[in-house]
Amino acid sequence: MDFKEIQELIRIVNKSELTEVSLEIGDTKIKIKKRTAEPSVIYAAPQPPVVSLPMPPQVIHAPLSESPSPPPPVKAEAKTENLYTFKSPMIGTYYAATSPNDPPFVKVGDEVKKGQRICIIEAMKLFNDIECDVNGKIVKILIENSQPVEYDKPLFLIETI
Length: 161
Known about the structure:
four-stranded antiparallel sheet; 10 strands
């Protein structure tokens, strides 16, 4: 097959509705693909609908007198500079006690020491004792019993001593 025959074959494919032609004559193999103007279809998983709640109406109070009112009292905020966020060291299921009938290892207000067992995380049917890595007092437990946890998920807020 010479060059002119190949050019003629390309013109025929361009004018036809064919998108691809393969031709094999002896040791010569020719494959012609036509570009299509059709967009490729990409399938994506449907996204959950976004629910927006209406904002409550805002009431604006105009001052009754010309004298400035005193600023509102400032609430005392909890000390955050010495709060330590204890995070999960692994992926698994969080357990607060060894069994549902046993008391939890720690409760809010309990003092904990470095190396003290504070929970169990089950991973692949293995129960792993999780030990505290600071001395302090449990301020808040951020997860419920039997809940799945990811690596680095916050579990406890501990006020360090």
